[in-house]
Design brief:
alpha/beta, Metallo-beta-lactamase, Chain A, Rossmann fold, 2 domains, 7-stranded mixed beta sheet, 5-stranded mixed beta sheet, 12 helices, 21 strands, binds MU-OXO-diiron
């Protein structure tokens, strides 16, 4: 695609990646993604904000074919999907200066082999003038790397936020409008990479709230031209508030664990508790991550494989621990044939989850009356806890 105009002197460049289905060889991208960069042309200087994934270097450089001069390249974030084409831009524009946060300097050198002579670091709140346009740099660390910053263009009231407020969404739309699906994609993105840094993002949001802008231009997904929608959504996700929701990731090999899971789900629903269950051999882990943004309780369901939990449950539990959701309660249920250490091993996998353990129900063989009663007692305990939320 050719550069597309956002407003006078600001153009959207970069690439839409319709076919990418996995990020970091881990995160599902059901809707593809985009790598947005922005060309800001002032009366005296021109800046390029971020770049594109190196896979799309030719497309991006083609978009710059008729751009005679770039004075500044702004790197809001050093990850390669935004910085990977910077070396090519620096090569073409031999006088361009690469602007980044102090922490990004070493990362850009290490990841991209950029010469330190081309880099100028900026401090929180520092500005550069493009003539009739100004770029102000705001340090917003840990969205989702330590060096991240956002760039504010006050004259046009645009915040260039890179990953922050972004969504993995391939679309020809420039703007999000009030499309609820953009918010869902943004929630998925938040859940998968931002959630571990929720507390730091709370501080970043306060800084961003002090700015006046009409648009948030992220480097993935459409531009938010109704920014209050994404701002409010983020404030909800990063808040300490949890919802009356139990998330159950589980695997069942011969139906025993599934029987426990389904009985627990039914009992919880009767007690007025919402449940989302995820069968881990078929589920999209992004969906599981999204459900953990708000849930009050996680119940992990596993059969026993060689004394321990099923490997898929092991992996999902490790992921949940890494994502640090704001869960308050946890329980483990499952089954075994002759012996098990599955519950103990799973408990050892979740040190980051500051949860109250509500119990373990492990049944030998197919669930008998005693196991079913234990599940009903667990449901009652969960519902009582949730009444206090
Ligand atoms: Fe879109 Fe953290 O890179």
């Amino acid at each position: 695609m050719k550069p597309r105009i956002i407003c006078d002197g600001v153009e959207l460049v970069g690439a839409v990646d319709w076919n990418r289905r996995l990020f970091d060889a881990l995160i599902p991208l059901p809707d593809g993604t985009s790598y947005n960069a922005y060309l800001v042309k002032g009366s005296e200087k021109t800046a390029l904000i971020d770049s594109a994934d190196p896979v799309y270097q030719d497309e991006m450089m083609g978009q710059l074919e008729n751009v005679e001069r770039i004075d500044y390249i702004i790197s809001n974030h050093s990850e390669q999907d935004h910085s990977g084409t910077i070396p090519a831009v620096l090569k073409k524009y031999g006088n361009a200066i690469l602007i980044c946060s102090p922490k990004a300097k070493a990362m850009l050198v290490e990841h991209l082999n950029v010469s330190v002579d081309r880099i100028k670091t900026v401090e929180d709140g520092e500005t550069i003038s493009l003539g009739n346009k100004t770029l102000r740099f705001i340090m917003t660390p840990w969205v989702h790397w330590p060096e991240t910053m956002v760039t504010y263009l006050p004259e046009d009231k645009i915040l260039f936020s890179c990953d922050f407020f972004g969504s993995h969404l391939a679309t020809t739309d420039i703007y999000s409008g009030n499309d609820a699906y953009v918010l869902e994609a943004a929630k998925r993105y938040y859940a998968e990479i931002m959630m571990p840094f929720r507390k730091t993002i709370q501080s970043n949001m306060k800084k961003v709230r002090e700015l006046k802008f009409d648009m948030i231009a992220p480097s993935h997904g459409p531009v938010h031209n109704q920014p209050e929608l994404i701002m409010s959504a983020y404030e909800d996700w990063i808040s300490d508030k949890v919802s009356n929701l139990v998330v159950i990731p589980y695997i069942s090999m011969h139906g025993s664990t599934e029987k426990l899971v389904n009985h627990l789900m039914g009992a919880l629903v009767e007690l007025g508790v919402k449940v989302q269950k995820f069968e881990l051999s078929t589920t999209d882990v992004g969906k599981l991550a999204m459900s953990l943004v708000d849930a009050a309780t996680i119940v992990i369901g596993t059969p026993t494989v060689h004394v321990g939990p099923h490997p898929s449950v092991f992996s999902a539990t490790h992921l949940a621990n890494a994502l640090r959701p704001k869960l308050k309660y946890a329980a483990i249920i499952g089954s075994y044939g002759w012996g098990t250490k599955a519950a103990e091993q799973l408990t050892g996998l979740i040190p980051n989850l500051k949860v109250e353990a509500l119990g373990t129900v492990m049944c030998k063989g197919y669930p008998n009356d005693e196991a079913i009663k234990a599940i009903e007692a667990l449901a009652k305990t969960i519902s009582e806890k949730h009444k206090l939320l």
